[in-house]
Amino acid sequence: MGVLVFVENVEDELAAQALTFARGIGDGAVAPVTISGDYAPAAWGQTLADIATERSLDAVVAAGTERGNEVLAHAAAILDQPFSANTTAFTPGSPPTVTRVRWGGSLLEEAVLHASTPLMTVAPHAVVPDGNPVAAETVAPSHHALAVAPTKRVGATSTDVSLQDAPVVVSGGRGVGSAEGFAIIEELAGLLGGAVGCSRAVTSAGWRPHTDQVGQTGTKVAPDLYIACGISGATQHMAGCKGAKKLLAINADGEASIFAHADYGVIGDLHEILPAIAAEIRKPRGA
Ligand SMILES: Cc1cc2nc3c(=O)[nH]c(=O)nc-3n(C[C@H](O)[C@H](O)[C@H](O)COP(=O)(O)OP(=O)(O)OC[C@H]3O[C@@H](n4cnc5c(N)ncnc54)[C@H](O)[C@@H]3O)c2cc1C
């Protein structure tokens, strides 16, 4: 009995959130596991399905990250069970109900979960961690299902801070103008101890990797400060950054819809404004 929790990284705040969510299900017993070796979504899903079956676990939970959602979707298909992605609440019952984030964050849905083994990922930052230490048993992947193996690894190009957990995200849109134009975005992110994000216009142009994309089909972020530079404010972009505590928009067009969402706005050319902000931050204090 208990809840199987797929943990990608014990250091990650999202793992603590998923474990806290899992402890709220059933009698509070959890079985956290990490899976060793290279990422192989089908094999990792098979591994979770095997463990859930062998140990007769009541539910399977993971953080609602790209990998969490992908691996649990495989596990759900293998177990022939429904899967609730980006869940914010679980109410026990026969059957239980879940609340989950839909349509890129524009609505919350309540759904009844008809499942013998519910599978759920937890929407990032929907749960406050209970403070218990995060530890997990490392298990080997089910090798019989290892159909996919990586042939090449491409390193992240952003700053060292992860986009999802960064306290500050400096994000660039089409207005940045080129891949090289991101040097000033990177500089400001570095000065603020933050991460670089971008819009889909940017990833579509090949200026930044998809891992930097914020939005409905990218990463959902919830920093203390989100600085949107040359981003118009499309619904699909805002779906990824509306969790930010404060939003600063820098845009040449005073009519851009991003300003309707912004706490602070600067109308002007980002190529002038960002270097000016960076220069101000670099100034010795008291100068
Ligand atoms: C199914 C679907 C999913 C999507 N998912 C996502 C997603 O996850 N993330 C996402 O971002 N988009 C997503 N999109 C795309 C989205 O609809 C927009 O097309 C995209 O966000 C626009 O990117 P942008 O704001 O950078 O570009 P634009 O809309 O072209 O805006 C560029 C902005 O830059 C400003 N600008 C230009 N030059 C300067 C300058 N020198 N200084 C300051 N400002 C300047 C302009 O005034 C303009 O407001 C999705 C679309 C669909 C249909």
Give a nutshell description of this structure.
The chain is α/β, with parallel strands linked by helices.
Taken as a percent bin, the fraction of beta residues is 15-25%
What small molecules accompany the polymer chains?
A: flavin-adenine dinucleotide
Largest sheet: 8 strands, mixed
Helix tally equals 7
Description:
This protein is an alpha/beta fold. It has two domains: 3-145, HUPs (Rossmann fold, 3-Layer(aba) Sandwich), CATH 3.40.50; 168-282, Rossmann fold. Helix content is 26%, strand content 23%. The chain has seven helices and 13 strands. It has helices at residues 13-23, 41-54, 66-79, 182-191, 200-204, 235-241, 270-282, and strands at 3-6, 30-35, 59-63, 83-91, 97-102, 107-112, 119-122, 137-139, 168-172, 195-198, 225-229, 246-251, 264-267. The strands form two sheets. Strands 6-5-4-7-3-1-2-8 form an eight-stranded mixed sheet, with helices on both faces. Strands 10-9-11-12-13 form a five-stranded parallel sheet. Helix 4 runs parallel beside helix 7 (270-282). Flavin-adenine dinucleotide is lined by residues 173-175, 199-202, 213, 215-218, 230-232, 234, 236-237, 240, 250-253, 256, 269-271.
